[in-house]
Design brief:
- The chain is 31% helix and 17% strand.
- It is an alpha/beta fold.
- It has a 9-stranded mixed β-sheet with strand order 3-2-4-7-1-8-11-10-9, sandwiched between helices.
- A hairpin with a 4-residue loop joins strand 10 and strand 11.
- Helix 8 packs across helix 11 and helix 10 runs parallel beside helix 11.
- The chain is globular.
- It starts with 10 loop residues before the first strand and ends with a strand.
Length: 395
């Protein structure tokens, strides 16, 4: 299915793994990371000795539990002899290390790279609440110097403002946001690893407590403990592996405007639009070719932004596209966030969507398997000030 793209079909995914996922598991981030990476390596039909590259996000930065392990901690724990490695915060969203691993294998810097993302926010925040980890005791810096004095300490606050603007300009409603949340919960009910699996109705959604208008409780993702990993391989090195590899057709890495929550020229767009634009520029595929969408839902409105950015409709037409959300179901024309996403499955912070896309393209989703035999999937993560995307096809 490959049409060339920036890697000319050389960068493929050969394995995917996930650790135990849950609320306040009491396990260390490194423990979860090792579990996910070993499962991904085994899934690819490889051994640790075959792995010669390691990549991760965010390199140890962030609030408590935001990083389960660094690249070097994982390399030391498994005894990997790496010819290439990277780990850092400033990259194309949380999927940036996977994109950089594609470049590494294409250039011959490595043959098989384990790419991971791990979190243990739920355990780290057990002594307080999520907001309590944001303020800390250090002097505010960056945008918090301006938002903090007004009590806007959470991304829920920062994102609520552009969401309100989008609703004002284009008629997006809370019911449209609710359809995204309900779709995630429906899929999570079929995923044994999901954090929240109980049925959710629109009445439940609309009646839930407001967090930061227009976001209610069910518009916000679920902090959890867990790790995900994939193996990015050079195609030539993957020819004898047990499963047909998945081809990375294109990637979105654009930062066309300032990396900001509130200073874009058009406040109804976000970094998702930059990433999507550059992804489509690098391939002859288009949104009409997609069979599956795994779109970041740290908040339901970020999924709205990705639907808009990817070009499924003219800018602003998202309400009619969402409708009652039927098209996003397992039997719909565009199955979306089939694991339950982060709204119900758990906040695995981006890489969980790449893991799920692999599972779906390999037809291994079990009760949550999309019914349209997906051949081409988009994975899109981030969407506030930074974002990244990846187009993945089944050979």
């Amino acid at each position: 299915m490959s049409r060339g793209g920036p890697f000319e079909g050389r960068a493929v995914i050969t394995g995917a793994g996930k650790s135990q996922v849950g609320r306040r598991l009491g396990r260390t981030g490194l423990d979860l990371t090792v579990e996910a990476c070993l499962r991904a390596i085994q899934d690819a039909g490889l051994t640790v000795d075959d792995i010669d590259g390691v990549a991760s996000y965010p390199g140890g930065e962030g609030t408590p539990g935001f990083s389960g392990a660094t690249t070097m901690e994982l390399q030391n724990a498994l005894g990997i002899s790496a010819t290439w490695y990277m780990g850092g915060l400033e990259t194309a969203g949380q999927i940036g290390p996977a994109i950089e691993a594609c470049m590494a294998v294409t250039l011959g810097l490595a043959s098989h790279v384990v790419v991971f993302r791990s979190v243990w926010e739920s355990t780290a925040q057990a002594g307080g609440n999520r907001a309590s980890t944001l303020a800390g005791s250090a002097k505010a810096s960056g945008h918090l110097e301006y938002f903090g004095p007004f009590g806007a300490m959470s991304p829920a606050n920062w994102l609520a403002m552009p969401a309100q603007r989008y609703m004002h300009d284009f008629g997006l409603t809370r019911e449209h946001l609710g359809a995204i949340s309900l779709n995630a919960r429906s899929h999570a009910g079929r995923n044994p690893d999901a954090v929240y699996r109980d049925p959710l109705t629109m009445e439940d959604y609309l009646a839930s407590r407001m967090i930061s208008e227009p976001f209610c409780l069910y518009d916000c993702d679920v902090p959890c403990d867990g790790a995900t990993a994939v193996i990015v391989s050079r195609r030539e090195a993957a020819k004898d592996l047990p499963r047909a590899p998945l081809t990375v057709e294109s990637v979105g890495t654009g930062m066309l405007e300032r990396a900001t929550w509130d200073q874009r020229r058009d406040l109804t767009t976000m970094a998702a639009h930059d990433a999507a634009a550059t992804m489509w520029e690098r391939t002859s595929f288009g949104p009409q070719d997609l069979d599956l969408a795994q779109l970041y839902d740290g908040f339901s409105f970020l999924t709205v932004q990705w639907l808009d950015a990817l070009g499924f409709f003219p800018h602003g037409g998202v309400g009619d596209f969402i409708g009652d959300g039927e098209r996003f179901g397992l039997g719909g024309s565009l199955p979306m966030n089939t694991s339950g996403g982060q709204l119900s499955g758990g906040r695995l912070h981006g890489m969980g969507f790449l893991h799920e896309a692999c599972v779906q393209l390999w037809g291994e989703g079990g009760e949550r398997q999309a019914l349209n035999d997906p051949q081409l999937a988009v994975v899109a993560v981030g969407g506030g000030p930074v974002a990244g995307s990846l187009l993945l096809s089944k050979d």
